[in-house]
Design goal:
- This protein is α/β, with parallel strands linked by helices.
- It has a single domain, classed as Rossmann fold (3-Layer(aba) Sandwich), CATH 3.40.50.
- Helix content is 30%, strand content 35%.
- It is built from six helices and twelve strands.
- β9, α5 and β10 form a beta-alpha-beta unit.
- It is globular.
């Protein structure tokens, strides 16, 4: 299942617009905060799909029955661009365990590239809900490789993939190639064009560079 949050009118669309805006992008702190806020909103939506149980909570005047998460999810992020969204998710699932995956594009002289996963730090994810953060799903290759890499730490019962901006081609690739049927994709927006160099159009540019500065 794919959810596109910008298809409904809400304040969420302002955050999408600001992420894309070349003038507002000059403020890297605001760029990071907008990604963080998108992670928070997506977390709230994901929370509606999770399992809960009822507990008694003591108030100053009595006892109230309250609803609590049965199990905390594991939050996983593809470094470095995914960190602001990760913080947004962690703001809401503040008792969750965390995983980090280092993946990058290795470019070749013929303008092609391969995606490589270098490092995975993760708790056991067996039978857990996994939330995988990546602000841009361009080709979809990074998400699929990152998920395959984290399977060394167990098999989750459900995967929620969250992304600020995705390409249609990338989403279709993830749907066709992710090695599980138990997943949901949450996108801020889906753009139809992916260039020959695998950049999303209109997209927003390089999320990692905009959040943390250019790399060499």
């Amino acid at each position: 299942m794919v959810h596109i949050l910008s298809e409904q009118n809400s304040i969420f669309n302002q955050f999408v617009a600001e992420l894309r805006d070349v003038t507002i992008q000059k403020d890297s702190m605001r760029f990071r905060r907008n990604l963080e806020r998108m992670g928070e909103i997506m977390s709230y939506e994901i929370s509606k799909t999770l399992e809960y149980h009822t507990k008694e909570t003591t108030t100053p005047l009595g006892i109230a029955e309250t609803s609590h998460l049965t199990d905390q999810p594991v939050i996983a992020t593809i470094l470095r661009a995914g960190l602001p969204m990760h913080i947004g998710v962690l703001n809401y699932f503040d008792r969750a365990q965390n995983a980090f995956i280092s993946a990058y594009r290795r470019h070749h002289k013929d303008n092609t590239f391969d995606i490589h996963v270098e490092y995975v730090s993760s708790p056991n994810i067996d039978d857990k809900v996994l939330i995988l953060c990546d602000p841009m799903i361009a080709t979809g290759g990074s998400i699929v490789l990152a998920y395959k890499a984290i399977l060394a730490k167990g098999t989750p019962k459900h995967v929620h993939i969250i992304s600020a901006i995705s390409s249609r081609e990338g989403v279709d690739y993830v749907k066709a190639n992710l090695p599980t049927k138990n997943f949901t994709i949450w996108c801020g927006a889906i753009d139809e064009e992916l260039t020959a160099h695998s950049y999303i159009v209109p997209g927003l540019g390089d999320a990692g560079d905009l959040a943390f500065g250019e790399k060499i």
